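Worked problem 6 (solution included).
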Amino acid sequence: MKQHVVSALVENRAGTLSRVSGLFSRRGFNIDSLTVGETEDTSVSRMTIAVTGDDAVLEQIIKQLGKLVDVIAVRELDPASCLRREIMLVKNGADEQTRPAVIEIAGIFRSRIVDVSPATITIEATGDMEKLNGLLLLLRPYGVLELARTGLVALERGSLVLSLSN
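Solution. The predicted structure is:
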């Protein structure tokens, strides 16, 4: 089983998110990540949905999404030709002795220190899931106190676009 990323343009109105997520729960599909935001057209939102499953599961998801009235366009994004990003905030324990190591790890991953207290450092990191998971792996020995992740957002590279006319 592999992770698939599905991008959908949907009507930006109340109930759309509920109908889409309800489709997944009714079919027994688990959502790994779901992000939603307005597009350049305020009447349309883009959903980026990460799901794990085989190709048959993916095919069912795309067909079922396509049947929903609120869905304008939907397709899988090819991992080789799309940009994937996620934002993570991680609050780590960091006293006087461990703070330099935590700051160095954050720098290696091109992360930003966004808050410091006598006992903690909060780091903001942006990147693909592998990068963020790698950062977490190195920070865990210092004590991860809190963690928040936005979920995946993705767009296709180059001139290929998911548009209202698809």
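Discussion: Residues 55-67 form the longest helix (13 residues).
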